[in-house]
Amino acid sequence: TTYAQNGLVSHQVEEALATGTFREISPFSPDVISSSTDSLISEVLTKGTILNPDTFIISELLRTSPENVRLTIPQFNKPPIILDLVKSTPFAEGFQVFAASDKTRPLDIEAGLYYKGIISGQPGSLAAISIFNGEIRGLIGTNSGNMVLGKRKNNKNSSHILYNDQNLKVSSNFSCGVEDLPHPPRNPKTHRPTNPTRATSN
Hints:
By secondary structure, the protein is of the alpha+beta class. Helices cover 16% and strands 33% of the residues.
């Protein structure tokens, strides 16, 4: 169940905090702006935070692949969200992907890092973070909805957005503006919340 999974992840983080070292990571510039400055996003989202990633820090994360990280995500006009995360292995050993047209040769897929964890100091919370080249995707369960983090889809630069899914004005099926927003990640062995256990959010 979701409650049991929350407890398991929280226990794993607590064990790691007691026995290991967490690398402190701030992969986004602290200079953030409100999503209301973007007319396209404002059509579909009441509020959110536009973030500029530090691609060097993300590259170093992928290169060094730390077991435990404390990840800071700044927010517009709010305190940052701080996550305590432990590495996750979402795919079985030997996992491969094949195209429907050719099932004899596996596709080259981008390797990434996957983490699960909690909001720092909030054992009942739950977070799933995926890190790829130049991109961080995430889903964080809070007491006021799910915070979705990801790279903007139709943007020429590398900017990301952090938003609460309860602040969407419309369903993604009814407006092209939503196409610029990242959707929650799908990580087989971390939380894919539809109704997460609520936790206090900063």
